[in-house]
Specification:
This protein is α+β, with helices and mostly antiparallel strands. The protein has helices at about 1-10, 75-80, 110-130; strands at about 20-25, 35-40, 45, 50-60, 65-75, 85-90, 95-105. It contains three helices and seven strands.
Length: about 130
């Protein structure tokens, strides 16, 4: 249910105030970096290799230097289904910055961010491919 609420928040822009434009995802253990997802930015698309991916725009508040980073993060949908793989971080123009490994429930900030995206995708996938009208 938590992921369903997150899906609704990330997919639709709705009537958001500046306060709730960003959804807090997770902070590092020392509290120096906090990650946020941009409301309305979740989408399923393809990367340059033609692989289906889930992507969202994220913001990183870095309390150690007062800087804010804006970037995109994506995971291949096949990796979401396997519950492990690579997550890729891009600048806002879609240029590669870095990638990292993730496994669901691994306990790392990176794994949480990837799992967040994947859980939304998996809930959406289940709803789209299930029986019914």
């Amino acid at each position: 249910m938590k992921w369903l609420l997150s899906l609704m928040l990330l997919i639709g822009p709705g009537l958001a105030s500046a306060q709730d434009t960003w959804i807090r995802l997770i902070a590092t253990a020392d509290g120096l970096q906090t990650y946020f997802g941009l409301r309305g930015s979740y989408q399923i698309t393809t990367n340059k290799a033609g692989e289906e991916i889930v992507v969202m725009t994220e913001k990183v508040n870095d309390a150690s230097n007062g800087r804010i980073q804006l970037q995109k993060i994506y995971v291949r949908t096949q990796d979401c289904k396997r519950k492990m793989g690579k997550s890729v971080v891009l600048d806002l123009d879609g240029n590669f910055k870095f990638e990292f490994d993730f496994i669901f429930d691994a306990g790392s900030v990176g794994s949480y961010r990837a799992q967040f995206l994947c859980e939304i995708f998996l809930d959406d996938f289940k709803a789209r491919t299930g029986k019914g009208i």
